[in-house]
Specification:
The chain has 7 helices and 13 strands. The protein is an alpha/beta fold. Helix 1 (about 15-25) packs across helix 4 (about 140-155) and helix 2 (about 70-80) runs parallel beside helix 3. The longest helix has 17 residues, at about 140-155.
Length: about 290
């Protein structure tokens, strides 16, 4: 029997988590661990400066469930590395998130970070989000998650790889299929809102409305077409293709020796010209990201 670990960033009481648990329990044994409150946009934070406390909870469909007063990444670490789980999971699923995690949102997402944490520890994982804040499509998203989970069990991903899945907020008959796509670039309008409190002090809200773009072959484009977007992710952010070019520029800037020596004469003039010119990645081999 397959073993699943479910986590999220919307909290232990999230409707999406409970619906996902009920559906995944039809595939195998399910364990659940989640924050005791919403932790949206907390990224990959972990708690290093205070103890973590947990409570065992009852969730229909789960063999065991815990709530933790920490982040999504804390939850996954505690479950696997803290030996809460009586057996190792075959697949870790984070979600179902209320709201999308598209494009560059994955850098802020607690949902995606929980899946990344599982992958860092060495377990296959996927993150699932519903692109509808009303939550009306959780059942459809859970069905999509279960179908993809069954495929992943039979066809394991390469190491250090996870899937980021977004389900459009449409009825099942309106779903136009599944697209495996790259990340798009998520942009927001009116990101910072300045306000004044009743005592005349200025404060700020970070918010903003998403601006959907139609860049082809991206997760954003897939959602605009009412398709499920599936994006394989890795946590290695290295631009490996331009390492030789960047190394050449750094070497030419006299940074190759340590400790640095202050150049003199013609060398000083050449160094000044080098330091005074910006490093333009577009001019390097490999082109734009």
């Amino acid at each position: 029997m397959a073993v699943f670990l479910l986590a999220n960033d919307d909290g232990i009481h999230s409707e999406g988590l409970h619906i996902l648990c009920n559906r995944i329990s039809q595939l195998g044994k399910v364990y659940v661990i989640a924050p005791d409150r919403e932790q949206s946009a907390c990224g990959h934070a972990i708690s290093l400066h205070r103890p973590l406390r947990m409570l065992e909870r009852k969730i229909p469909g789960a063999a065991q469930a815990w709530e933790v007063d920490g982040t999504p990444a804390d939850c996954v670490k505690l479950a696997i590395e803290g030996a809460l789980l009586p057996e190792q999971p075959d697949l870790v699923i984070s979600g179902i998130n209320r709201g999308s995690n598209l494009g560059t949102d994955v850098l802020y997402s607690g949902t995606v970070s929980a899946a990344i944490e599982a992958t860092l520890i060495g377990f296959p994982a996927m993150a699932v989000s519903l692109c509808d804040l009303s939550g009306d499509g959780f059942e459809l998203a859970a069905e999509v998650a279960a179908e993809i989970a069954a495929v992943m069990l039979k066809n394991p991903l390469p190491q250090n790889t996870l899937l980021n899945i977004n389900v459009p907020g449409v009825r099942s008959e309106e779903l136009a299929g599944i697209a495996v796509a790259r990340l798009g670039r998520r942009q927001y309008s009116k990101v910072i809102e300045r306000r004044v409190d009743p005592r005349g002090k200025v404060y700020y809200w970070i918010a903003g409305e998403p601006v959907m773009n139609s860049e082809k072959d991206t997760d954003l484009d897939a959602i605009l077409q009412n398709k499920v977007s599936v994006t394989p992710l890795q946590f290695d952010l290295t631009r490996a293709d331009i390492i030789p070019a960047v190394s050449k520029v750094i070497d030419e800037a006299c940074f190759a020796t340590v400790p640095f020596k202050q150049p003199t004469g013609a060398s000083a003039k050449n160094a000044q010209n080098t330091y005074g010119s910006a490093l333009n990645v577009d001019d390097l081999s490999g082109g734009t990201p």
